[in-house]
Amino acid sequence: MLHRIFKALAVVVGIASLGPWHAAAAGDALSFGVLSQRSAVLTAQYWNPVLEYVKAKTGTALALKVARTAPESNESIKAGGYDFVYSNTIFQPAMADAGYRVILRPRTEAIASHIVTLEDSPITSLKDLDGKVVGFPSLAAFVGYAVPMDHLMREGISVTPVFGGNQEGIMGQLKVGKVIAAAVNSQVMRAFAAREGVRYRILWGSEPFNNLPISVHPSVPGDVAEAVRTAIADMATDPEGMRILEETGKLVGQKPPYGFLPSSPDDYANYVEFYRTTLVKDIK
Amino acid sequence: MAQFRSPSWNRLPFVVRLMVTATIALLVAGAAMLFFSARQDAEDARSDLAGQLQAERETLPAAVAEVVVIGDFSTLQQILDRYVGRQSMASIRFQDASGVTLESVDAPITPVAPAWFASWMDLADVSGTAAVVVGGHLYGEVALTLTAQGAVNRVWRRLLNHLAILALAIGIDFLGIWLVLRQGLAPLSRLQDGARALAEGDMAKRIAPEGSPEMRRLITAFNDMAEATQRSQDRLVRARDDAEIASKAKSKFLSSMSHELRTPLNSILGFAQVLDFDRRQPLNADQKVSVDHIMRAGQQLLELIEQVLDLARIESGRMTISIEDVVVDSAARECIQLTQPHADDQDITVLNEIDPRMAVRADWKCLRQVLLNLVSNGIKYNRKGGRLTLRSSPSGPGWGRISVIDTGEGIPEDLRDGLFEPFNRLGKEGSDVMGTGIGLTVSRELTEAMGGRIGYASAVGEGSTFWIELPLA
Q: What is the DSSP letter of A111?
């Protein structure tokens, strides 16, 4: 039907400088980047109420910024494009120059990498995957790609990776049988299985890693960063904050405890250690 | 319904009237169907547009939410471009809170329906907006416009299709009626031929029943009628033949009897005259009276016999008519001369107003006989001292009238029906006026034998006028 299109106008105000688009859209708002793990809509449905809450509590406007894919998120993180960021890729050596500093971590238990298959799959052990096609969320997924691939390489199991774009994507492919096994975030997979009614088998699990932290860019004033950290950390103890956390948590299939705790880079030292020793060289 | 009673409508052939009626019925029904169908289509289109607008407002935010959240304007533009490719979507525009605006406009749909039709449908473009809100955050607003032109075009095309179907139905209706009637009414022409044959005297003509049950019943009824007519005519022919035989026998009898009577009657009259004029032995007064009675009665009887013989000749067809140019005045003068003594006896003035130049096509003897009868009657039934006038006048193109006008007492209304009946003297049988009662009968027969007409007019107390009309020479 494109031939019928008479005119397609793109009146773009500031479209050439899409980097600060969120800021332009929200005036003086600080950007809040989220690693692309779920669909942008689901991500927005989860984070926008939280950011509105923060604004109400602190007066600091935070504009959600979601990239199309995790690598695009990482590119922005690497360039220091976000004022705040919800991601665990900041620990990659290549991101170190951006200088993001951890200020909050999830109250939930630490995540782990799981290599899973459907419960009725003929695959029963990791060795059965040798020479097989295995699904991963993306090259940027820490527990979804870097950790499990590092383990497979150390075990000498050669697999052909295919990528689903994000966690939801590869889990969807596993569900419909497009991949025989997938490497996933243990918590995300659990929520997906509960929501979609998928029964699966865990072939391997990694050591726990604290889930994605919220970090702040050095350019953000300290008082602002502290105010944001306090507001988010106190949500779990504030009835209104807890209501938001519960409602948004249900959207993505989270289990309690909801919310975040104040944190520091020490809580994520194993990330740094992993990146230092990993055999996987194509982590994004 | 006035046209169905008008003469011009009724003069149209049955097939034409049927076709016109069927066509009008189809046109009226078709027009009503088209009107209501188009109106319903317009209502449906209006409802569809509103429904589509509502559906787009409900689904569009979700469709663009992903790219709006990401801020992927190029993909958003592609989505908007795809949306304007949808049916009825004229334009779509997205504007975020900061004023960034993306818009896609479809090429205008070319109108195919005439302006009056679009105006009659009263379909307008519809517009609406929908907010793109995700997680309680307003990302922007989508404004969309649906054009009604496509719906107008569709309804117009459907109307044209319906018109084509209606035209096809009328065509099939025409063809069907024509074929059915041509085959169904074919027996009518044979029926017409049969009726014409009957009219021309072919009483044995019958039509083989064929066609529809109604036509078969009609043909059977025609045959029954022909059968009855034939039987009736056979009876009439037999009756006529019997009557002619009887008439001829009567005429023959009368002729014979008249001849047989005339011979002795002439002897009686002859000897009576001898007695009356015998100078050697003159009659005394009583004898004179008796002989006068014998002579008067004999003359009356002789006149009667002559008239009867004339009538018998006419009825038997033995009367020879020779049509020629006859000067009426000469015939009239001769009649006046013959009857003048009787007129003088009654002191009646006879006036001849016949145009001396007037000539008619007639048999001279017959014309003289007719005029003689009329003049004789005019004198006999006139009043003493009265007047009798013979007058000529034109009577229509090519015809002339000869009138005999008396000043008698006229003919009473109740007696006029028997005026031309033989031997009917209209109550004068017992009077002292002598007559046979068949003069007018003979006059009528003779006049009609010459191709003319006879008639009269009478006023009681004033007199009567008898006339004949004959073709002018």
A: B
Residues 208-247 of B with CB under 8 A from A: none
- In chain B, the number of structural domains is 2
Q: List C-alpha distances in Å: B264 to B138, B260, B270, B296, B434.
A: 152, 7, 10, 15, 21
- Quickly count: other Cβ atoms within 10 Å of residue A57's Cβ: 18
Could you say which architecture CATH assigns to the domain A113-205?
Answer: 3-Layer(aba) Sandwich (3.40)
3 state DSSP class of B352 = strand
Give dist(CA B54, CA B158) in Å, integer: 26
Angle, alpha carbons B276-B282-B288 (nearest 5°): 50
Last residue of a domain, one of B182, B217, B248: B182
Q: Strand A133-136 vs strand A160-163: parallel, antiparallel, or unpaired?
A: parallel
On whether residue B382 sits in a domain, the answer given is yes
- Per CATH, domain A18-109+210-277 is 3.40.190.10: yes
Residues of chain A with Cβ-Cβ distance to B65 below 8 Å are 40-41, 44
Element (H, E) at B20: helix B14-70
Query: Mean pLDDT across the stretch B168-182?
Result: 86
Interface ipTM: 0.72
| Domain segments of chain A as ranges | 18-109+210-277, 113-205
pLDDT tens, position by position, for chain A (284 residues)?
A: 333 334 333 333 333 333 333 333 445 799 999 987 788 999 999 999 999 999 999 999 999 999 988 788 889 999 999 999 999 889 888 888 999 999 999 998 898 999 999 999 999 999 999 999 999 999 878 899 999 999 999 999 999 999 998 889 999 999 999 999 999 999 889 989 999 999 999 999 999 999 889 999 999 999 999 999 999 999 999 999 999 999 999 888 788 899 999 999 999 999 989 988 999 988 87
User: Residue B335 half-sphere exposure, CB side, CA atoms within 13 Å?
Assistant: 29
Read off the pTM: 0.54
The amino acid sitting at A27 is G
Structural domain of B466: 320-471
Q: Pick from A5, A9, A44: which is nearest to B137 by CB?
A: A44
Contact criterion met (CB < 8 Å) for A11 and B69: no
- Please report residues of B whose CB lies closer than 8 A to that of A54: none
Task: Please judge whether A52 and B137 are an interchain contact, meaning their C-beta atoms are less than 8 angstroms apart.
Answer: yes
Partner-chain residue, chosen from B65, B96, B101, that has the shortest CB–CB distance to A25: B96
